[in-house]
Structure formats: structure tokens, C-alpha cells
Amino acid sequence: MPKPIIIDCDPGHDDAIALLLAFAHPELVNVLAVTIVAGNQTLEKTVNNALKVLSFAGVQCEVAGGYDRPLMRPLEIADAVHGESGLDGPDLPAPTFAASEKHGVQVIIDAIRGSREKVTIVPTGPLTNVAAALIGAPDIKKNIERIVLMGGAAREGNWTPAAEFNILVDPEAASVVFQSGVPITMIGLDVTHEAQVMAAEVDYLLNSGHRVGVMVGELLEFFGEFHETMGFAGMPLHDPLAMATVLDPTIVETRHLPVTIETQGQYTTGRTVVDFYGVTGKEPNVDVALKVDRDRFVQMVIDAVLSYDK
Ligand code: RIB
Ligand code: CA
Questions:
Q1: For the residues 4-13, what does the mean pLDDT come to?
Q2: Confidence (pTM)
């Protein structure tokens, strides 16, 4: 029986690939809705990007825009990474379907309330929408199986030395989610920086003669430009790893640890403070991914991308 899931994302190159990975496996996941948040780019652009990628892949589902800014801070975007459109690289045609009129947060609430099975939420952007749903409708907690999120890190940062982008953009929302009591798997930079796709694998996609494969190769080529300036050998597939973990939890190894979100630090705001040695006395609240089977994961992504109609 496929797991009911909701993907909350900010496409974004890696978000786009995470969407393609999900819809390539209808035998494993039933995507109830794709909700969109501002993050990598403004909400208008991230909504449009989600519609364009899904349309290109021949997928139609409920896509709904949520918050266009963090709960309590101005929006910070990642145009240096994802470009002016938020999905620079491939020249994608206009979408073939429109976004829902409903607000993304209401879509999350209604989908969870209406599901007979507990729902897994897969956030791959800032946690604004998910936090707002938990605040506005705390009753949904009992029908959430798990939140498998891309965000944070036990040991590093990528937007500041201390913080990962998704958490940093809306640390107050992240704090609400991490304190919610809902089971959480944190797919952070500790594993996504190990889960890099390399140039030879990108070239394989570019030369595949496969429409979606070539498009993903073009996404990765652009995504690689920023990461090359950061000294990466390849391109970290952040969001697809969160999705892969939903499809096959054995792709990562986790430890159940206490994690708190820093919202006040002068240099450390947005830090996911992971207590490896129990020095805070806090109860563990998060399954923190610390190891990844990189080769099996990248093959999973390539196979999924090439499984779409040529
Ligand atoms: O830090 C990486 C995360 O920030 C990814 O989700 C990427 O899409 C950006 O949103
Ligand atoms: Ca993202």
C-alpha cells in the first residue's frame, strides 16, 4: 500500500528532482498534494517552477502556494544558487495546469484531516507552511506518521558557518516543528554533502537522449556552478535524499538525539543544536541522519529520472 505523503517545497533545482523521484514511485508513495513555500526564490517563482517541472514530466496533482515569507522575518532567497527564476538552466515550457486557489497551509490541514492513513510530510524548503499548519490545526498531529525534512546539520552550515539555509530562513517555524512532538527524521548537510552527484553522472544524463534525463542534467549543470565555487567536487542532492529516505529508510543511518533550534544567536541563528552526549538532559526528539549509502542513492535518482516517458 503506497504511503500517503505531502511534499512541501521551494523549487529550487534539488526540490524539482525530489518531486520527480516521488512521482516515479507511485507503488511506494501516494502524493496527496505538493505545497509550495518561499525560500530559494519568491513564492510566485517557486509555485511556477513546481508547475513547470511537473508539467514537463507529465504529472498533474494539487499544487498550492503557501506562505510568501517566514513567520517572523523578512524572506531571504538563494538566487545565487538557483538563479533569477529559481530554476535556471533548462528552458522549460509553460505549465499545462494551474495551481490550486486554496492556500497551501489549508491544503496541508485538509489533506491530513481527510486521510484514512497517517500522512508523512516531506518538507524540502523553509518550514513556514508546516509550522503554520501545526499552529493552526494542532489536531492534525495525531494523523501525521512522520516529518522527513531536508534541513539543518549536526556539524556544519551552508548559509552561515552555523546554519543550513532551510532552517535559517525561518528558524521560528523550525522551532515549532522540532518541538511539535511529531516524529521527525532530519536529513541534514551531514549526509547531503556526502550525497553528491558527480560530473560523469550528469554527463550520462545529458547524453541519455531521454527528455527528462537531459532536463535534469541541465538542472544539475547549473546547480553545479554555485557548488563548484564552494569547492564541491559534485552537486549535493539535498532534497532528493529526504525523498529517497521516505521511499527507502535504509538509504541513511540515523541516531535518535535531542535537537533544538537556535533563534537568537548573533552568529548561530538557524543552528540545529544536536546534543550527541545528552549534556542538556533533553529528551531525544529527532532521528538525525549521519550516514548515507551514496552510490545506492544516486542510482535510485538516475533510475527514477529515466523511468519517465522518453
Ligand atoms: O540547504 C539546502 C536546502 O536549501 C535545499 O532544500 C535547497 O533546495 C535549499 O532550499
Ligand atoms: Ca529546497
A1: 98
A2: 0.98
